[in-house]
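hiii, so i know i said id send this last week but things got crazy w the move. better late than never?? heres the sequnce for the chain we talked about at the cafe, plus the structure i predicted for it. fair warning i was half asleep when i ran it
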Amino acid sequence: MLGQGGPNFHRPRAFPAEVLLSSSATHSCASRSRPWTLRFLLWLAAVLLAGWHGAVGAEEVGLRISWGGETPLAWRGEIAVDEGSIRDWRPIGSEVDEAAAVVWQDGRLVLDAPSPRFFDGVDIWVEGNEAAAVRVSVGAGGGPAPAPLSFRLGDPARPPVYQADLEGEGNRLYVERIPGDNLHVTLSRPHLVFDPEESIDLEIEPRGVAAPGARLMLRAELVRPRWIGDSPEGPRRVLPQIALPRLGGTGEPAAIIQHEFSFSPGVRIPIRLSAPREEGVYEIILEVVSTGRPRLSEAVMRPFASPAVLAARRVQIVVLGRNKPVEDSPVGTLTVIGEAVPATNPGIWDRLPLLAHRLGRLGVWNRGDALGSGRRGTRAGPNGTMVELASAGAEPAWEALSLPVGDLGMPHVLEIELPADSEQVMTVSILEPNAAGAIHPPTLDCGVHAGVHGIGAPAASDGIRHHVIFWPRTEHPLLVLAAGRPDLPLVHGKIRVYAGWRRLPRLFPAEAFPAERWIAAYLHRPLFAAEFQGPDVPGPFRRQGIEDWQTFFLAASRLTEYLNYGGYNSLVMSVVADGTALYPSRVLRPTPRFDSGCFAQDGDDPVRKDVPEVLLRLFDREGLLFIPAMDFSMPLPDLETAIRGGGSEKRGLRWIGPDGRALHEVQPPYRGMAPYYNILQPEVQEGILAAVRELLERYRDHPSLAGLGIQISAYGYVQLPGPEWGMDDATAAR
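okay and structure toks below
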């Protein structure tokens, strides 16, 4: 998970190339030219530099500031702008307590991390003229105040990426342009989910891409994104059957829109596209190219070259209708495609770079016939010989097996034969490399407690068949079975894989459920994209992929199918948890913990993804009910700002004990979660209600929205602690 251990850095993307004339080029040319040529070149240089300064002075600039690396530290510092202002900001760190680590105070961002972390950062949008100066000061808590890194927006000699060494081995500070900021996209709606054939209105603002007066062309192209099994770059297929009206009129439909314009700071170009009729995820490719005459040297060296691309970005959209399309394709027939076999491939170790140190600690054996740990043997079962693995010592027994697959991305059924006459606790995990080619340490996909005698237990002579639904992303998924208790052996028979379904069938018709009875599935954390194998895409990190709209759209579609398949008519799922939310929120300022799309190198998300909007549209037309849940065990940005800036008067917003210390200081947070606030304070109640109102107002028009869940735990602040807390003057007086 992003933020747990922190991503590994590689060199960030640079700013777009700037149109500058170096002094060395000027002198070289002047030595062989006439005086009027020298005067012309000096005039041209002044125009170009003035144009860049003017562009920066009139434009808003988005900057990404990140710090960290290999040594976790509790970072301190501030980010401020002189002779300008920070118009907006968003955190890009992923810790649960991120809202307490980056706090808005008096027009600047104060960095005060409550706990050590490998990585942290923030995106800021700066307004100001060319004299505006950005100051960044980042250092370890308790150490001397570091010298600030400072630069002016109008400095034509500034590097594309600022870098500086920080305390701790391998730690660095980076300042770069936010991906896609040089083609700023403004929407007329709060999300990027459209009905089929609905108009898509965008406003494109090129920022600092050329000197004022330059003749440029904006190109817009609608394409399909990559699909499971495609190459990492993915196919970019133009859809010529989709009508894209030309800019500025009602011309003939075109697959590619082209619009020429004269660049000036602040110019905004409205475009209108038409959403496709077919549902799915699409991408709008935006490019700005130069249409002016090339320089003589370029024309000679590259006489047939395409116009130079000055700026480009990709915007992802979702097309999803409010009415269910007619299902004219059959579900398909489920058949056995093969059995699981021991993972004997010698290259398996190359596919497990993040597991190697853990497997060695578990006493892995690989005798050429299997991969796992524990004492391996066999025993008789109801349908033949079974494998039995006994744990060696305190570490549980486990083994890895390779699974056969059919069509990638289609539902598969994993069947595991278990004995009914012996008790065991088995955990089941299916591992596949992510988009970066790495396999993270295994997580629990499901668990089985089998062989327990009681009401409804099968006869001892019968076997148990446990089934797991999965959607493979790669051709060689790895099944890991582990004993949940070291005192019980791991026993299983044949393991088969079935395939052939194109989608999960509906086992129970909608009318089978009484309208007044909810049969609800419950997802404690917003991890459904991983649980339903939503494919990720490569990002800027060496060992982690990132989520795009395809990740969530496929996972949401599979979740909806699974509810119908499993006989559920409703879902309770956390959408606010662990310091973030699955939707855009001004109140919560979500982090990339569950949606890392802000790290897309092509700027795919001009606004944060609205995942509940997709779920609710699917539920609306399927007749399912959705109950979003909120977990208030994280800091809230506005309350942190009030506490930091309010002095002793605002200290009562925390739970204060008889010794004057806050509850979260006496009882350290658990993974960043803690009862941070005194819910008896009206200001805290209003902070919680603001988040609740924002969510309900956003989705109130969906008929599938059936309520709201508030998750209550010992680590949250919607329940009261013991009577020794709340000893501040205001609470005691009430």
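btw The chain is about 15% helix and 30% strand. thought thatd interest u
miss u guys!!
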